[in-house]
Design a protein that fits this description.
Blueprint (H helix, E strand, L loop, with lengths): L1 E2 L19 H4 L34 H15 L16 H7 L17 E4 H10 L1 E4 L2 E6 L8 E7 L4 H4 L7 E5 L2 E2 L6 H11 L7 E7 L7 E6 L1 E4 L3 E9 L2 E8 L6 H14 L4 E5 L6 E2 H12 L1 H4 L3 E6 L18 E2 L25 E6 L6 H11 L3 E6 L7 E2 L3 E3 L2 E4 L3 E4 L12 E3 L7 E6 L14 H12 L6 H5 L5 E2 L15 E3 L2 E3 L1 H5 L1
Parallel strand pairs: 1-14, 12-13, 13-17, 17-18, 18-24, 23-24
Antiparallel strand pairs: 2-21, 3-10, 4-5, 4-25, 5-6, 6-7, 6-8, 8-9, 11-12, 15-16, 15-22, 19-22, 20-21, 26-27
Helix pairs in contact: 7-8, 8-10
Length: about 525
């Protein structure tokens, strides 16, 4: 997801994933008996109290809903498209779900697919270190319907996690969860069992998985115990020696605070090696801190290309043409940031000059899981004429951002701003699409290719990376690109503990479809 700092070198406000309604924030019902006094705020159609007068009144469900209503009316990008409903029949969580536009985009898709909330405690833990309860597996769903075609595959795992300790690697297929067949489950009880196993909510929960490892002829059974896993957002940095020069590669999974040091180290390594080209693997990067994307853009392009150029220009709703409604500061463009911010000073202090590769082009590997701040990085580089070559699938389509806002132990995320690059372009709500013959600005030169779960990430034989290396030498896609693109579509999804997505933690199999974070939100 994409986040905007209050000030570039101040602590940033960031956004992420997950829906976990707790305490008075979201679990309260529609009973508004605590608001019966004559002085209590009441709903009057078309009239909105200042949201600051309604905030943090956690014993009053109606007041919480009225706060959400006023806050949304003040800061939501499409506030005038929210239907002003009486909150009385709804609980807090239900009412928040209604406080968004129901309009469609020009292409017929829902305009807002990124409206969610989560427990503040969980958000603060996830935001600070990428830590959450799980097994360390990021998963991919192929075909949602029950039957032999439904398949859940491990896309990657986190180091030092229950999954990695059990030698579960990319490409492993999850056959059963606590004895329930993933392919065949079609009743609510079986579906609940699968979801409870795939997405544990408490540390210590044990789940029995039957797995078919990549290239294995037989299944094996493992028991995993859920634990708090800390994400490693930057992995697999390497230098690929080719006949025509050195190619840097890095896997960048999330724009979270701890990624700053990881990116600094990775780009320092690649800069010292004087790589000629760079492949950034953001296929599972759902976004996060916009300032990290700005830093990454600087480290790719360097001083000369970014000097006096805009990374992103943001705008809010028409009530605030010149002022940020959250910070109350004058709107100013975000530059390309050339130094560390110090999100975690124990890892990297602020003010350290960032390394740079000074490249004129970059190769990016994408899937529908590539979202928000990752898309902003692509857009910003294109805005300063760095050539972006896209290998993979169309990205999620989120040129929007928000400030996570806490009320009564729940943190809410509602779209508040949109962004454009230095050239003024930001219309990619249907995603960036790789194309061999781009005709519109949202089409990016490159090759449409399905994710290759049969090879490790960073393996030069892996389909997307192999295509990037081929394109680099031949300035065209490999001959297999079109055929692969027509393969059955995949719906990638994640264990939300390990990727900051604009998503929910309400992962349920319903009506024979696994509603994953990505599926719910995009």
């Amino acid at each position: 997801m994409k986040l905007l700092p209050r000030h570039i070198l101040a602590p940033l406000i960031i956004s992420a994933s997950l829906l976990l309604l707790t305490a008075c924030g979201g679990s309260s019902g529609g009973d508004d008996s605590t608001n019966t006094g004559s002085t209590s705020p009441q709903w009057v159609a078309g009239q909105f109290a200042d949201d600051s007068t309604l905030a943090n009144q956690c014993s009053a469900p109606l007041t919480q809903k009225l706060w959400l209503r006023s806050w949304s009316n003040d800061t939501y990008l499409w506030y005038n498209e929210i239907i002003d409903r009486d909150p009385a029949p709804y609980n807090v969580a239900e009412y928040f779900e209604l406080l968004k536009t129901e309009e469609l985009s020009d292409t017929g898709n829902l305009k807002d697919n990124f409206h969610f909330s989560m427990s503040t405690a969980e958000w603060e833990l996830l935001n600070g270190s990428g830590a959450s309860v799980g097994y360390g597996m990021t998963l991919n769903l192929r075909n949602a319907s029950a039957g032999i075609s439904r398949q859940v595959t491990v896309a990657y795992n986190e180091p030092n996690s229950p999954a990695s300790d059990a030698d579960i690697s990319r490409g492993a297929i999850i056959v059963t969860v606590d004895g329930v067949s993933v392919a065949d489950a079609n009743d609510s009880g079986s579906i609940d069992t699968i979801n409870a196993g795939l997405f544990p909510s408490t540390s210590g929960k044990q789940t029995v998985f039957t797995l078919r490892d990549l290239d294995a002829q037989t299944d094996r059974t493992v028991t995993l115990s859920a634990s708090t896993v800390v994400s490693t957002p930057v992995q697999n940095t390497k230098i690929i020696q080719t006949a025509s020069g050195k190619v840097g590669y890095l896997q960048f999974n999330a724009h979270i605070a701890t990624a700053e040091k990881g990116l600094y180290d990775a780009m320092t390594l690649l800069s010292n090696a004087q790589v000629d080209d760079l492949v950034v693997d953001i296929r599972y990067n759902g976004g996060g801190l916009l300032a990290l994307a700005s830093q990454m853009g600087y480290m790719i392009a360097g001083d000369n290309a970014t000097a006096n150029r805009v990374f992103e220009r943001t705008s809010f709703n028409d009530k605030y043409p010149t002022v940020n409604p959250v910070t109350r500061e004058a709107l100013t463009p975000m530059p390309f940031i050339p130094e560390s911010i110090g999100f975690n000073t124990s890892l990297l202090s602020s003010g350290v000059p960032l390394p740079s590769l000074n490249l004129k082009r970059v190769f990016v590997l994408t899937t529908p899981g590539t979202c928000s701040a990752s898309e902003a990085l692509m857009n910003a580089l294109r805005g300063i004429d760095v050539e972006v070559i896209q290998l993979g699938e169309t990205t999620c389509g989120k040129p929007y951002g928000f400030y996570p806002t806490n009320n009564c132990d729940t943190t809410y995320f509602t779209i508040q701003f949109k962004g454009v690059n230095d050239k003024g372009f930001g219309e990619y709500s249907d995603g960036f699409m790789p194309s061999t013959n781009p005709t519109v600005d949202s089409e990016v030169p490159g090759c449409e290719l399905a994710d290759d779960l049969g090879h490790a990430l960073g393996d030069t034989n892996e389909r997307l990376l192999s295509a990037a290396l081929f394109y680099r030498d031949n300035n065209r896609c490999p001959s297999t690109a079109t055929a692969v693109a027509r393969a059955p579509a995949q719906d990638p999804f994640v264990d939300p503990g390990f990727m900051l997505q604009d998503t929910r933690n309400q992962n349920v199999l319903k009506n024979n479809r696994i509603l994953t974070p990505l599926a719910l939100e995009q």
